[in-house]
Amino acid sequence: MNASLSIGDLTLSPPLALAPMVGLSHSALRTLALELGGVGLLFTEMLSVGRLPQENASVSPFLLRYPEEQPLFYQLFVSPGQDVVPAVERLHQLGAQGVDLNLGCPAPNLRKQGAGCALTNDREQVRHTVAMLRAATRLPLSAKIRLGATLHEEELVDFCRMLAGEGVDLLSVHGRLHKEKFCRRPRWDWIGKVKSAVNIPVLANGGIFSVDDARKCLELSGADGLMLGRGAVCRPWLFAEIAREIYGVSCPPTSLSLADIYFRFVQLLERFRPERRLGRLKQFTHYYGQNFTFGHHLAIAVQTSSSVEQALERAHQFFSRNKR
Ligand SMILES: Cc1cc2nc3c(=O)[nH]c(=O)nc-3n(C[C@H](O)[C@H](O)[C@H](O)COP(=O)(O)O)c2cc1C
After folding, report:
1. Cα 57 to the chain's mean position, in Å?
2. Atom 14, ligand 1: which residue's CA is nearest?
3. CA atoms of 74 and 70, how far apart (whole Å)
């Protein structure tokens, strides 16, 4: 397995990415993943191309970033007809290592704006948006897609070839259709159809929660690398395990307990303004609690807290009863 992947001047080593996730892929989780090792590429959550130029980087929780968070691609969602240039210029000022276009999010609020996977209803609009982005930056340009509205190999492959032809340097493919829920098994073999059809690197995404999943996904997709979402929130050390066991990268296993890792995350959250911490802690805990048989007790305790202090007191109680 190739332990590094080049995209222009950038080397992903190893080719393992933390997925863009609203409320989760922020500075604290990115830093935690980097500290535990094995992650080769970071993404922001999706950012509005219209609002980005006005965001105040010194207070915005979406733009908060520390220098060690590299390489970092900023993900944009774009509605039909929106100008991308001011947002891309902003990303240059922010020191982005890459720009990612969201073509896969089916959330109703994005659908209403014609962005995310709704943008793909109009292929010419996608072509135009990618061409605008390509003209606006020399940074690596990536796109994140799902498999389409219906399973149709020729359409999928044509669409991906069009993206590559317009200058997309890297594709992240979430192996589900637009309307498919997370409870459905991702179609890793369909990611393979994209991989064999395009001459740019492909990251496979969806349903990777263990080293075995990662191995199987790579076998079925032949992808150049993997993108982990929820699996990396539940187990931020999973990148290191995959890097070690599949890519042969020297990443020592962590000696930290589950509680140590949780409270390190809490410490990293202190980078945010106080009013921005509790929501992010609740969202993280929802996934992290899944490491325990009775993790829903932790999730509910934190979920129903009205302050970070209360949440932490309850979390301390939970971890003192559940040592691992
Ligand atoms: C809470 C949450 C927020 C998400 N936000 C985004 C997003 O901002 N942009 C995006 O492209 N995908 C987003 N996704 C989708 C993930 O990037 C990923 O494609 C999906 O979770 C499947 O991968 P996984 O099974 O590894 O989690 C989000 C997923 C979750 C669970």
Report:
1. 20
2. 21
3. 11
The three-class DSSP label of residue 73 is: strand
pLDDT values of the chain reduced to their tens digit, one per residue, 324 residues: 899 999 999 999 999 999 999 999 999 999 999 999 999 999 999 999 999 999 999 899 999 999 999 999 999 999 999 999 999 999 999 999 999 999 999 999 999 999 999 999 999 999 999 999 999 999 999 999 999 999 999 999 999 999 999 999 999 999 999 999 999 999 999 999 999 999 999 999 999 999 999 999 999 999 999 999 999 999 999 999 999 999 999 999 999 999 999 999 999 999 999 999 999 999 999 999 999 999 999 999 999 999 999 999 999 999 999 988
Q: How far is CA 11 from CA 16, 25, 41, 216, 287, in A?
A: 11, 21, 9, 24, 30
Give a yes or no: residue 111 inside a domain: yes
Residue whose C-alpha is closest to residue 301's, from 322, 323, 316: 316
Q: What is the Cα–Cα distance from 231 to 217, expressed in whole angstroms?
A: 14
Residue 222: what residue type?
Answer: G
**pTM of whole model > 0.90?**
yes
156 plus 69 within the same structural domain: yes
Question: Are 122 and 195 members of one domain?
Answer: yes
Residue 265: inside a domain, yes or no?
yes
Looking at the chain, how many residues does it have? 324
CA of 25 to the centre of ligand 1 (A): 9
d(CA 174, CA 144): 7
Q: Is residue 253 part of a domain?
A: no
Which residues lie with the beta carbon below 6 Å from any ligand 1 atom?
19-22, 24, 45-46, 75, 102, 104-105, 144, 174, 205-208, 228-231
Separation between Cα atoms, residue 119 and residue 122, nearest integer Å:
6
DSSP secondary structure string for all residues of 301-322: HHHT-SSHHHHHHHHHHHHHHS
Q: Is residue 234 part of a domain?
A: yes
CATH number at residue 87: 3.20.20.70
228 CA from centroid of ligand 1 (Å): 9
